[in-house]
Amino acid sequence: MAELFVDGEWRAPRAHRTREIRCPADGSLVGTVAEGTREDTEAAIAAARRAFDSGPWPSTPASRRGDLLLRVAELLERDRDTYARAESLDTGKRLVESEYDLADVVACFRYFGKLAGQHAGRVVDAGPDALSRVVYEPVGVCGLITPWNYPLLQVAWKVAPALAAGNTFVLKPSELTPHTAILLMSTLTEAGLPAGVANLVLGAGAEVGAPLAEHPDVDLVSFTGGLATGRRIAASAAATVKKVALELGGKNPNVVFADADFETAVDYALTAVFLHSGQVCSAGARLIVQEELHDELVDEVVRRAERIRLGGPFDPEAETGPLISAEHLAKVEKYVETALAEGAVLRTGGRRPSDPRLAGGHYYLPTVLDGVRQGGFAVTEESFGPVLTVETFTDEDDAVRIANDTHYGLAGAVFTMDASRAQRVANRLRHGTVWINDYHPYLPQAEWGGFGQSGFGRELGPTGLGEYQEIKHVYQNLRPGPSGWFRG
Ligand code: NAD
């Protein structure tokens, strides 16, 4: 049984608490893991503190830290089948998606491996009688808390830059999807990471995550997850004025103008929201379509949504998988119920599938809700499930106004064949990533920021204007065409 990884070794937790991890696709037992307590978390923090204060890692030359990350990337590639299978069993997602995710994880370690050591600092002119230099130093002990939707990728986005910069850390992955984080500890050790630099405590948020936000020996807490948890973490971290990075939710607009390429717009309307059954923070859950295109576009989206085939990780015909848990399925059901009570019109889905093949898993049909009320529950709250809402707009100003009418600001897209309009609208969208004639492409070298309540605290770029600027990544596909993700 997997245990806690502290100070370079696997240990038994103080209290013997276990959790069965079951595959969301069919309920089969994947494994049983031992979970830690607050005391175990404190022991892990102490190990990370010692490794930072007196271990070799923070003062290891940055380029050597980079070499280690490159070695990790090689080992991940060597073991990709084991990792991808473990990820699919924990999440229920298709094996091919876990393979794509693993490629992104490898790219992430490689990117930060190459970046380490490239920015040693700079000399600032202070006249002939002084030497003035600006240097970059690690923050210290990092508490890293991650969600279940892209388990290893979320971990990689935190672990790789934290290590590149010379920090030590305690990682708490989602309690629902621990297995790839367990595997990663062995990979980091094999790559030669000194004991105590990487520590892993499994367990629930209140028991293991909360102490990471509260403890005075943790210098930074980096969290990806829901808005409510993020608020709690920021409040706890305030007591010790920790550095805080929050990557939170999104209610992301997908704006389609009447002059968009029709096939491309339909294809991406589906991919934006039904990829991984909508369990994606940047999912394009709000389709905002120009009035004159509404009927034609929505009819086609509904027709194609009804053809999406659901299935487990190893079903070669499956196009998307289950929701992560029975609790999450109930939450999505409640979201749809509330949206319907508010006046939304159900165009398709809105229930669990009746196919007996899927009876053992947490499946929900791809759902389209038309006629939603602007500013209402359905378009402001995240469902984090396979649910698309449809709103309409009249002109460019109206599109921007509706798309920005959210307390989030994570991501969004615009579909139009008018290149000038595409850039104008992208400039006006208050969202951290804006795709043009595309949805979802991710580049490790581009910032992933969040406007509004989608988060804060990530690297703020080279302008020197620090926290007074938001960073937006605008990505334009210059050869728009269907992705073919869903076969149709
Ligand atoms: P969650 O907030 O429930 O849990 C995330 C992590 O926080 C888990 O490890 C959980 O155990 C831990 N946690 C829970 N309570 C805690 C507490 N009191 N103190 C410390 N840690 C605690 O989120 P989730 O359900 O795992 O993930 C879904 C959410 O994550 C969605 O809102 C989604 O939009 C968001 N998300 C955002 C991004 C992004 O990049 N912005 C990426 C993926 C997911």
Structure description:
With about 500 residues, the protein is an alpha/beta fold. The protein is about 35% helix and about 20% strand. It has two domains: about 240 residues, Aldehyde Dehydrogenase, Chain A, domain 1 (3-Layer(aba) Sandwich); about 220 residues, Aldehyde Dehydrogenase, Chain A, domain 2. The chain is globular. Bound molecules: nicotinamide-adenine-dinucleotide (NAD). The site of nicotinamide-adenine-dinucleotide has 31 residues, from helix 7 and helix 8.
Q: Biggest β-sheet, characterized? A: 8 strands, mixed
**Percent range of helical residues:** 25-40%
Number of helices: 14
Mean pLDDT: 94
CATH C-level label of the largest domain: Alpha Beta
Count of individual domains: 2
Strand arrangement, largest sheet? 14-15-16-13-12-17-18-20
CATH topology of the largest domain: Aldehyde Dehydrogenase, Chain A, domain 1
Query: What's the CATH H-level superfamily name of the largest domain?
Result: Aldehyde Dehydrogenase, Chain A, domain 1
